[in-house]
């Protein structure tokens, strides 16, 4: 019976994935999303023509907790200009494995994920960076919350 549930779960999460590129809703001006169970922070640093984006996910609980991804793509990063036109999308032109990825977090554990964006093709100016950590399930239960979405205004120099 457990196998039937596992196979059904596998079909459901591999079929999901629409909406990955949906815009992220602005949550105040804070650069940290906080819920009872999880923290999601996004920090950027500009250096030598690169934008370094660091995403930190913290299990804010007193017990182990797990996150499941439906593919090798764990996050999406989008840069929009002041007119809302997409100037950069992390996933564009990339292929990701179609495999279930399971990560366990110990109590209070933080895992960091980092991406470097080359800036030579972007004009200097103000951009909105939308970051989404693409979580299919938390502790085996489908995730439909905005816990792992972030929108940050950045200045490209």
UniProtKB/TrEMBL annotation:
Transmembrane segments: none annotated. It holds the Pfam family BsuPI. Keywords: Signal. InterPro entries: Intracell_prot_inh_BsuPI (IPR020481), IPI (IPR038144). Residues 1-22 form the signal peptide. Residues 41-134 form the Intracellular proteinase inhibitor BsuPI domain. Gene3D superfamilies: Intracellular proteinase inhibitor BsuPI. This is Intracellular proteinase inhibitor. It comes from Halalkalibacter krulwichiae.
